[in-house]
Design a protein that fits this description.
Layout (H helix, E strand, L loop, with lengths): L2 E5 L6 H11 L4 E4 L10 H11 L2 E2 L3 H7 L9 H13 L2 H8 L4 E4 L2 E4 L14 H8 L6 E4 L6 E6 L2 E4 L8 E2 L4 E5 L13 E7 L4 E7 L3 H11 L3 H9 L2
The structure holds zinc ion.
Amino acid sequence: MTRTLILSDIHGNKDALDAVIADAGSADRIWCLGDIVGYGPEPAACLAWVREHCEIILSGNHDYAAFEPSVVRDFNPNAARAAEWTRAELSMEEIAYLRSLPSLVAVEGVTLAHASPADPIWTYILSVVDARDAFGAFDGALCFVGHTHVAACYTDADAMISRVPVVNDEPLSLAGERFIINPGSVGQPRDRDPRAAYLWYDADARTVVWKRVTYDIAAAQLKIFAAGLPDRLANRLSLGQ
Ligand code: ZN
């Protein structure tokens, strides 16, 4: 049995990351689906942890913004300000490291993409229509994505795409159908559950389990205020949106 811990959208929130690590305990390996930095007050600490511990590391759109400032013009004002702050916080070496990362990886018949296999950095899979495009863009039966900050599951059973409700703490069998799975966000959940999200994937049993864990949101918010980042980025952590 190989227990893979899957993390996405940490977004510089070390308080949330620490809670996830403590709650998860030991993993055989850890995969990170990108957006390690951006929004949150501790991008360098989160990046250092990911580099040390993760077997696969993808780059997300906010990681991309750290080395490609021009994309920030497509961000909303708060995200743009956070991206500029984040770039100033990171060393040249850290920015070069982010630039070196892929946004799409295929491993052991599993596809990992930050946003979607159809467009690894920018597309949002928020509906069955989005999922249909994504299912057409990868081989094999299983794809993990992040980017939306919403824990989600889509299945493709004979071209019938449907969204499967996410139930925390209960193994979901991946047998028989094709799946696109989003673990949700460690550092900035947007599914109205402010708890940090992560996922277990068991490649042998072919199951996944979504997990949520409370963390010290107030501590993360104080760091956001102290950094001079937009208040909204702190407030939304309490709301999970
Ligand atoms: Zn993100």
